[in-house]
Amino acid sequence: MAQTVYVLGAGASHGDTLRISDEKKWKKACKKDRNTEVDHTIATNPPLITSFFDANYLWWTYPERIEKLFPEMINYIRRRWGIKGVFGTGDWLHVNLEDIFTSAAIDVEFNPPGTNAHAESQLLLNQIKRHVSFILGRCTIYRYGKYSRALVNALDESDTIINFNYDLLIDQEVISRTGIYQYHNFANVVLDKPFQNTVQFRALRDKHTGSGLYLKMHGSLNWTTCTNNSCPRSTSIEIGDVLESLLSRNSPTGRPPRCETCRSEVSTVLIPPLLNKPVMHSSIFRNIWSNALYALSQAKKIIIIGYSFPPTDFYTEWLFRSARINADTQVQVVNPLNNPSHPNQREQERFNRMMPSLFPHGYDAQLTAFNQMQFNS
Ligand SMILES: [Zn+2]
């Protein structure tokens, strides 16, 4: 039986307390673009969904550089959303990544394969993914989340993490720490292959019988798949080492490695949150989502950190409603919108209407931020 199910949204990474794990390497990695020393005080956490085009999150580079690197992406946003002015400022502070990502993914679906329009939309989608990877890579490389680490340290073998984020703050804790079982169990149950076939892992597997899983609902920066449809690796995902994945995405021109079977390009597996076609069509994502559904239905306790159930995310809403969460399951919601004097009153009213309908047996709404939580390890 699943004990505690943690559900993490963008607010968890955004609201964590990030610490530098290797000062020298961190400075070196940040120095690449500006060629000047980067100050701790300007380093940001991973952005929320509306800040991926905000110059404040480009502290390690120049906004003009992003315009040069990803011109199709920038022009697409200017043209389709009527965004004017200097990139990274003004209207750009309100551009929602979900809208852009979803629209580009619809273009790919809509334009028939083999046409120029299809190739162009594919290129655009890749630029968006590279921009996302680049920003998240830079915000997290050689850093760790104090609360992400505490959460992982407190895991029981039957606890499950349902993570809606692409970044690797939790992954680096779950994968690199010896004795943490959830990622290995995910590889065994969902991918049907061991994540690592080492002595330590086999010992870990023999020791644990719990049902705990680590489920990344929209893909992950360290997952790649082959882009060649006739290659057997195009229907599976490869899990990359966390630091290597961050390093390769730390450079805007750096691409993930080539496919080991056919040598075609591989692409990072990131699913636009609003368009979950891959969830229904890829057996891996279908398994991830059905395991999440089962874990929620069996949970003794559900803790939702930094996920606000945006009205457009029908799939996640469906997941929680379909799980038929038991009346005696404790639910805790950690979210800034729990604060009655939240500056965005309209959003808060929406949240306050939505949550009791998702959790009719009630929930604990005392905490507003990840860094108010206390974990016992
Ligand atoms: Zn291949």
Radius of gyration: 20 Å
Helicity, as a percent range = 40-55%
Largest sheet: 5 strands, parallel
Give every kind of bound small molecule, once each.
Answer: zinc ion
User: What is the element string, with H for helices and E for strands?
Assistant: EHEHHHHHEHEHHHEEEHEHHEHEH
CATH class of the largest domain: Alpha Beta
CA-to-CA gap between the ends? 20 Å
Number of helices: 15
Sequence of strands across the biggest β-sheet: 5-4-1-9-10
What is the strand and helix layout of this fold?
Blueprint: E1 4-8, H1 10-15, E2 18-20, H2 23-34, H3 63-69, H4 71-81, H5 97-110, H6 116-140, E3 143-145, H7 146-153, E4 160-163, H8 169-176, H9 182-191, H10 199-207, E5 214-216, E6 219-226, E7 238-239, H11 242-249, E8 266-270, H12 277-281, H13 283-298, E9 301-305, H14 314-322, E10 330-334, H15 345-358
Parallel strand pairs: 1-4, 1-9, 4-5, 9-10
Antiparallel strand pairs: 2-3, 6-7, 6-8
Helix pairs in contact: 5-6, 6-11, 7-8
Bound molecules: zinc ion (ZN).
The site of zinc ion has 8 residues, from loops.
Short summary:
The chain has 377 residues and is an alpha/beta fold. It has helices spanning 10-15, 23-34, 63-69, 71-81, 97-110, 116-140, 146-153, 169-176, 182-191, 199-207, 242-249, 277-281, 283-298, 314-322, 345-358, and strands at 4-8, 18-20, 143-145, 160-163, 214-216, 219-226, 238-239, 266-270, 301-305, 330-334. The longest helix has 25 residues, at 116-140.
